[in-house]
Design a protein that fits this description.
It is a single chain. The chain is built from one helix and seven strands. By secondary structure, it is mostly beta strands. The strands form two sheets. It has a four-stranded antiparallel β-sheet, with no helix packed on it. A three-stranded antiparallel β-sheet has the order 3-2-6, with no helix packed on it. The radius of gyration is 21 Å and the shape is globular. The chain starts with a helix and ends with a strand.
Length: about 100
């Protein structure tokens, strides 16, 4: 009887946790941006990118520029409630910059 009461108390405690304690599903892509000559582009900002999933806009939660010997890339994490969904990343380049190519994996 005491074990049953303890188990019920633990279950009730877990059920009473706020929903915010349950992290939303996340998606992530590694993005490379290149100029018309194939050189990687650095210095881009989060507000220049947008992410959609199955055509629905998603909030970018983490945006990090990564530099290595091959140049710059960007790690973009976003809320992703649909596993396996079609993800599209778009870039609004700075004014006066020629078309840039965005690739991700």
């Amino acid at each position: 009887m005491k074990r049953t009461a303890a188990a019920i108390a633990v279950l009730l405690a877990l059920l009473s946790l706020p929903l915010a304690a349950q992290a939303p599903a996340k998606g992530a892509v590694q993005i490379t941006v290149t100029d018309p000559l194939g050189r990687t582009v650095s210095g881009l900002k989060q507000d220049q990118f947008s992410v959609t999933e199955n055509g629905m806009p998603r909030n970018i939660t983490v945006f990090t520029e990564v530099r290595d010997q091959s140049g710059a890339s960007y790690r973009v994490e976003f809320e992703s409630p649909t596993p396996g969904a079609r993800v599209e990343v778009t870039l609004q380049p700075p004014r006066g910059v020629p078309a840039l190519t965005v690739t991700w994996k």
